[in-house]
D-psicose/D-tagatose/L-ribulose 3-epimerase
Amino acid sequence: MNKIGFNVLAWSASMSEDLKPILDRLKKIGYDGAEFFVGSDDVAAYKRIGKHCENIGLEVTTVCVLSPEENLVSPELDIRQKGLEKIKWIIDRSHDLGSQVLCGPFHSAFATFSKAAPQDIEYARSAEILHQAGDYAKEAGILLTPEALNRFECYLCNTMEQLSHLLKNTNHPNVKAMFDTHHANMEEKKMGDAIRKIAPYLSHFHISENDRGTPGSGHIPWDETFAALAAIKYKGWLTIEGFTRNDPDFANSIGVWRQFSEPWEMAENGYKFIKEMGEKHGL
C-alpha cells in the first residue's frame, strides 16, 4: 500500500508548537506522513517541527506557492530570479523539516494572470528556472513536483497535457509531477486518462474531494482514480489536501468561504477511505 499523508493546512498555515498534538494524533490514526505549507518566516520553527516528526516516526512532504513578485513566467529577469531564490529558500525550509517532496504550483505565481492564453516563451521561462531549482533540490535530497491548478487559480498549467509539456521542457530528473483530484475534476475530461497522461512524470498525488471536504463524500470518480493509479503502478504518496475555515487568513487567501468538513472528521474518515480504496484496487 502506498504511503498516506495528511496536509495540516486543514488546521493552520503557520509553523508553530500548536501543530505537535495534531501531528501526534495523525500518527496515532495511522498516517505515514504530514504535509506542511512553507510560508512562515520563523526559520527555527521548521527545525523544531521537523525534529518532532522524526521523533514520532512521521515522514514529511511540503507544499508552497509563489507571489506575483516571484513569478517564474514574468518577462522581467529580476522577478524570475527572485522566484528562484524563493524556491531555494523553500527547499531549505523543507530540508529543515525533513521533507522528501516539495509540491505546489510554483511553476508560476498563484492566481496571477496575463489576460492571455499561456505562451511558449512562458513555458520556456518557467522550465529554465525549474531546471535550476531542480539542481538545488537534488543537493537537498528533495523531489520537486509542480502542480496543475484550475483555471481560476492559474493559467500556465491547468491540465496534465500542459504540465507534461512544461516538464518535458524542464528536462530534469529531480523535477517531476503532482496530480490533484480537486483541480483535475474541473479541468480534465476523464480522471483515468489524465492520470495515464502524466504517468511518466507522476511522483506525488493529492486526494482531494470536489469541494475540498472529506474524500469519498462528494462526486470525484474515486474508483476510476484508484484503478488508474493501480494500472500505472503508482508508488508515491497519497496525501489528503482538504481545506477549512480554521485558519481564516489562509482560508480567505484561497477563497474558502465555508466549512466543508471538520478537520478530524476529514482525517479519520479520509484515512479509512484511502485504505479501503487501495485494498479494493490493489494499490
The mean pLDDT is 96. The beta strands are 4-7, 33-37, 59-63, 99-104, 143-146, 177-180, 202-207, 237-240. The chain has one domain: 4-281.
